[in-house]
Amino acid sequence: MKTAHILFICLLLTSFAAAQNAPTVKQAESACGPFQVEFNVATYVHPHPVTPAQPGKAQIYIIEVFENPTYKIGRGPTVRLGMDGRWLGADHHDSYLVLPVEAGEHHLCANWQSKFKSLSRLISLENFTAQPGGTYYFRVRVTSRNAWKGAPWYTLNLEPVNDDEARLLLAQRRQGASSIEK
Fold first, then answer.
1. Are residues 82 and 113 in the same domain?
2. Residue 89 and residue 16 share a domain
3. Residues 85 and 7 grouped into a single domain
4. What are phi and psi of 26, to 5 degrees?
5. Can you tell me the distance from the alpha carbon of 59 to that of 77, in angstroms, rounded to the nearest whole number?
6. Are 24 and 46 within one domain?
7. Residue 116: its pLDDT value, please?
8. Domains held by the chain: number
């Protein structure tokens, strides 16, 4: 009888904790755009040079780095990039996106666009405060590791990078242009 009561209390506490976390997750994901939106990405043949921000605005570069030592998933992942509740576009397999942004506080979102639920749940968030004339660099690192029984296990991490690292990454990648799938 005591075991049944303890089990009931554990289940009740687990349900309560899950209910408490649901609004927190929704609030955090509010940096992303609507999850039903999907992108096509094309890349330019030659990298474009780093350019200054437009007057009164800041500029962000979001650089995808796909670290996949043993597996290849088609042509690599497409990562949707959102800011302040709307999608900005997407990167695809080691490309980068460059965008002007208004000055102020912003919340970024990176989300693997995939037909597989386990991959489409991969989200990483970052925030920053843009100053007029500033240039900000972020890396979206998609990493593959061998997991149990050789199946791949992936992580997605959105992080700021310094100017020197960013220029190196940009020189090794193509600029992307994305459009919403119809």
1. yes
2. no
3. no
4. -60, -40
5. 24
6. no
7. 87
8. 2
**Shared-domain flag, residues 90 and 137:** yes
- Residue 19 φ/ψ, nearest 5 degrees: -65, -35
Distance between CA atoms of residues 80 and 89, nearest Å? 6
Distance between CA 43 and CA 6 in Å, rounded? Answer: 57
Q: pLDDT digit string (tens) for 37-65?
A: 999 998 876 667 778 889 999 999 999 99
Length of the chain: 182
**Euclidean distance between CA atoms 74 and 71, whole angstroms:** 9
Contacts of 119 (CB under 8 A, 6+ apart): 77, 112, 154
Could you tell me if 93 and 12 lie in one domain?
A: no
**Residue 9: strand, helix, or coil:** helix
Tell me the mean pLDDT in the region 66-74.
65
